[in-house]
Amino acid sequence: MKEQLEQLLAAAVAQLKEQGTLPAELSPRIQLDRPRDKSHGDFATNLALMLAKPAGMNPRALAEALLAALPENTLVAETTIAGPGFINFVISQDQLVQQLEHAYQDAKVGVAGAEQAQRIVIDYSSPNLAKEMHVGHLRSAIIGDAVARVCEFLGHTVIRQNHVGDWGTQFGMLLAHMEELEGSELAMELSNLETFYKAAKKRFDESPEFANRARELVVSLQSGDEKCLNLWQQFIDVSLSHCQEVYDRLGVKLTRADVMAESAYNDDLAQVVEDLRSQGLLVEDQGAQCVFLDEFKNKEGEALPVIVQKSGGGYLYATTDLAAVRYRQNVLKGDHLMYFVDQRQGLHFQQIFTLAKKAGFAREDLQMDHYGFGTVMGKDGRPYKSRDGGVTKLADLLDQAESRALALVQEKNTELSAEEHANIAKVVGISSVKYADLSKNRTSDYIFDWDTMLSFEGNTAPYLLYAYTRVMSVFAKANVKPDALSGTFVLNDEREIALANALVRFNEVVHTVANKAMPHFLCGYLFELAGAFSSFYEACPILQAEDENVQQSRLKLAALTAKTLHQGMELLGIETLDKM
């Protein structure tokens, strides 16, 4: 409806330009918003205020002219002009009912596919395999996964890339420690990568002989020494297994097939440097090979370097990322490259994208975007740590989430079996951790608070999960299937109309999430939808409705609510429950 209304306004602007009321060269961006005070209407625009000055007209007079120029249509039931010239629109109920019926019948709940399907390569999670995944890896994994799900839902071809760190100097240290261990002792040590890493680091810091051996092994590894590669592969396999366990528990759609590690680009790194040199882009600075981009300067106005090869011949993240751009364009045939990486890497990626195009590694029309995110903070305002002050492993965090959720559900419902309690606790615990993150603005830091995220009140996973079970309980009581209802939608009560208006917004919200890579818009919408259903449920009897047509309509509203909540949570990677 929003898109249709924007098209009507565009036609009105075109007519006023033909009449000479508006300057012919004007090309306004027509945008509609939902008014904060919903009693004013379903949509509002400040278009008249924007165009009043170039048109040399009073905003209210221009608003009246725009409304008079609107083409005849069956979409708009009522228009009003508010304040200095805001235009409010009320959508006709016939249109609303048509949209509801379409959403009820449609497998995608009325969500239209993307206008132009793309091949989208999404880089997310990307842990360092030297250690187990920790809480700092949470945001990239679940935000990237939610956006990937939404893009697939809209018809794009999504190619997931888990750009894991599996190369570099720290692996020499780990290999040196592996050399000192044998058989069962090595297997036992590798069962806890965090402990293994700390032991190797301690040896590296305390023993010059060990440190020298570690440096030698780095050279051997990068030279393709078979023994080193075998040890390295053993470590990588264990580490990736740890990662996969976490992904499976989180419901993140990443597999071993999606792993494209730093080491995979190793053979192309020398060619990247040579190609930059052949184009006259390389400058030697203190022995290192650099590219200076005038687009990025320091406070003194000097161009900042992109270092692609160290003085000793080693390569850096920039070199690998340039090779990855080439691979994602030339081999994966990506139209749009999306990177979900900590926002502190913003400058790095802007430099990479600029240099990739300047060097011809990326087409001019290749879309490359870095979607940064904030930090998970503790209540003390610092990056979240475990009780002992160390970095919290994700596996331990999820264990704690399930444990806390189990205590909560056992207290809430004592009639369920132990197996049912355990399953509900798993879903509630994992969902609570994910939703607490996804419901926050991607670019902001957020406070990790167990009490808030496990609460059944407010914009939380438990609240939404309970709201869904509440809707489903209606059909359990009625002994009818929510997808097999007849009759038409009848909207008389203001709570029915409010719920209907919320339901038809799903299409708009899903597209907004895809366009802005902001899952919190979907979270906010689902929370509002659950609230609208609650108000409807309390005020409008469903199974006790005396009129059969009204009962069928209210059942269909409930069914569409359940369908929308289920689909919305699935797009967020959150599992639903039929009872709690």
UniProtKB/TrEMBL annotation:
Gene3D superfamilies membership: Arginyl tRNA synthetase N-terminal domain, HUPs, Isoleucyl-tRNA Synthetase, Domain 1
Stretches assigned to the Arginyl tRNA synthetase N-terminal domain: 3-91
GO-annotated molecular function: arginine-tRNA ligase activity; ATP binding
Top enzyme category: ligase
Motif ('HIGH' region): 127-137
Family that this chain belongs to: Belongs to the class-I aminoacyl-tRNA synthetase family.
Protein name, UniProt field: Arginine--tRNA ligase
